[in-house]
Amino acid sequence: xxxxxxxxxxxxxEVLYSISLRSHATSYYENLVSDAQKQNFYDYYKWxxxxxxxxxxxxxxxxxxxxxxxxxxxQGEGIIGYVIAHSKIEGKLMIRGLFVDPxxxxxxxxxxxxxxxxSWVKSGDSAELTVVEGNVxxxxxxxxxxxxxxxxxxxxxxxxxxxxxxxxxx
Length: 170
Fold this sequence. Notes:
Blueprint: E1 4-7, H1 13-24, H2 27-30, H3 38-44, H4 49-64, E2 68-75, E3 78-86, E4 92-100, H5 109-118, E5 126-132, H6 136-144, E6 148-152, E7 162-167
Parallel strand pairs: 4-5
Antiparallel strand pairs: 1-2, 2-3, 3-4, 5-7, 6-7
Helix pairs in contact: 1-4
């Protein structure tokens, strides 16, 4: 599969909402959330004009903000995935999201985007992220790059426990 990874621009923001929705709509995510929260999960990741507008506005601000890093994977004319990270905390890059269109998963796009996010880690800094504890696919990718669980995250993901993973400073 031929694709390129580039820095996101403001005009990409709306497409990123669509990728996030499609990524969360896969049955894999559905199996991670608690039964008691499934309907809330479905409702949240159902398309909404209001939510799309809010998401796009927030994402556009992050794309141009110097403390945020956003990269997209592009195939042909379309965006097929994105990664977003935040370097506001001194000495640490916080990877905030990695999403790939479900039709393009298992083709190395997520790994390439994740590697791009690691290129944003400054020398001597650590990288940190949160992940649903039961998300074995994501966790195995992160562990491949020396990330280790360092604790529990205070918020759950629709009833699913999240953990904090960190890769020590270089």
